[in-house]
Amino acid sequence: MRSSTALRLIAFLLVSVIAFSAPQQNPPFGPPQPKDEQREKIEKEMAKKANEQRQAEIRRDSEQLLKLATELKQYVDKSNENILSVEVVRKAEEIEKLAHSVKEKMKN
């Protein structure tokens, strides 16, 4: 009798170890997973907000480009045919970087 009790105890322990070491399923009381339709709606809304933000950034950067171009024209008008100031070159580089950034945002 002792050996059968010991075998039952060992079998119970093995079953318990196996049961608790198995990967756990999501509990039934957890938050419900969004359905495919809900997920698509959320993704579309996120894409729409990202696009609106990108458009706002393009508008802001375009306004900055206009401002920089106007400043560049004023600097060029003040300089003579033999001398371009360092400020003119710096403004041109700043415009170039900003224009490249706007172009990249428009591609996305």
Structure characterization notes:
The protein contains three helices and no strands. By secondary structure, the chain is an all-alpha fold. It has a domain at 59-108. The N and C termini lie far apart (77 Å).
Write the topology of this structure.
Blueprint: H1 2-21, H2 36-78, H3 86-107
Extended strand count: 0
Helix content: over 70%
Order of helices and strands: HHH
Can you give the mean pLDDT? 80
How would a crystallographer describe the biggest sheet?
none
**Apparent shape:** elongated
Radius of gyration based on Cα positions: 34 Å
Uncertain runs: none
Distance between the terminal alpha carbons, to the nearest Å? 77 Å
> Would you tell me the structural class of the helices and strands?
mainly alpha
Number of helices: 3
Percent of sequence in beta strands = under 5%
List its salient traits.
single chain; 108 residues; mainly alpha; 79% helix; elongated
Quick structural overview:
With 108 residues, this protein is mainly alpha-helical. Helix content is 79%, strand content 0%.
